[in-house]
Amino acid sequence: MAHTNEDVDPARSGTATGNRWLLVAAGLLLQFSIGAVYAWSVFGGALEDAEPWQLSKVQASLPFTVTIGMIFLGSFVGGRLQDARGPRIVALVGGVVYAAGILLASLTNGEEDYWLLILGYGVISGFGLGAAYIVPIAMLQKWFPDKKGLITGLAVGGFGFGAVLTSPVAQWLIDRDPDDPTGAFLPLGLAYLLMSLVGASVFRNPPTGYTVPGHEPVTDAGGVSGDGKDYTQGEALRTPQWYLLTAILALSVSAGISLISQAKTSATDIAGFSVGGAAALVGVLAIFNGGGRIVWAAISDYIGRMRTFAAILVLQGVCLILLPHADNVAFFAVLAAIVYLCYGGTFGTMPATAGDFFGVRNAGAIYGLMLIGWSVGGIIGPVIASALIGDDKAYTVAYTTIGVIALASVLLTVVTKVPAGRRVDHG
């Protein structure tokens, strides 16, 4: 599908220059703002304690759950639109919608406004988040065919680090008026709006005939190359590879998030962390989540995408099996850090993998729809973990079961090969 003139830079030649790194910085700025969603636990705890709210744990977690559910819908719509209309307008609209939802949530004053909190923070901001999230991932692959893994890792790494930056600021704002925790959404929403607009304003697709001097397509396991057919979304959905990649995404996400959903209580019950120590550990682990998106994506450029996913699944499986026996705080922290690193690596590596398998022309639509694996894994992992752990705190049964599933999932990386239209014979 042809791109509109405003989506490319007509002043640029068809070769890469250092200016493309400005787009990376812009993408990071946008992702920092929307990645703040992972700081919800700060607000959830405050809503349980604040006098006008006093929500139950289930009520306090629901706005975040709705947000995550809406991400898939937003990424599906945003992905299709950005392939048709270009990245700038979609990212701008997504950022504005996301910030508008946050600002709407700032108008709430107590439990009687709970519905407005769900609507603003959950439905509206979640949709805007999904629409904006997919844009830099798809756009930057087109600018960096020579560093596809690293660059998509950086793009989603910004999302992973968003909560690390936002959590202390949000806590400081809430502490200024503990009875009005949602009041913190006003300055935060304005900051998110500014960051989104500044970042998205420079987004553009590369010009026609764009090349990177000296770059030659790298052949991955299965013969994938930067050359070959660019699949449409419909064509990708008619291949078994799209479903295999989505399954790998869902299974890897479910393994990592099973620990993430239980990290604080697992640290206290298994390794004997204090409540404060467990909370501090969770904050540190978030850094590994963000860093893993960059590290594993960069590694995948050298060892291949499927080998990378095999390593991610093996490490998650082994660490989860060992975790219930880690009664030493240092050992527990190391195992948990590896799981978080691999969880982040899943999000860093999969966009480049989808680009390798189906081309980057329609990457927004194809990967945007593939994010249903995120939603599925995000539900399956916590449900299995909480059900198996139960009131008896059966961590060994829970984490061993999930670890074995992760190890078995490695078989998918062995059978998943590049579609015929993307294979290049270098014989």
Characterize the structure shown:
Residues 1-6, 9-16 and 218-226 have low confidence and may be disordered. The protein is globular. The longest helix is centred in the first third of the chain and has 30 residues, at 114-143. Helix content is 72%, strand content 0%. The chain has two domains: 18-200, Growth Hormone, Chain: A (Up-down Bundle); 233-417, MFS general substrate transporter like domains (Growth Hormone, Chain: A), CATH 1.20.1250.20. The protein has 17 helices and no strands. By secondary structure, the protein is an all-alpha fold.
Second-tier CATH architecture of the largest domain:
Up-down Bundle
Could you list the spans in which at least 5 consecutive residues all have pLDDT below 50? 1-6, 9-16, 218-226
Q: How many domain regions?
A: 2
Mean pLDDT: 84
Fraction of residues in H or I helices: over 70%
Counting DSSP H or I runs of 4 or more residues, the number of helices is: 17
DSSP summary, beta strand count: 0
Proportion of beta-strand residues: under 5%
The level-1 CATH class of the largest domain: Mainly Alpha
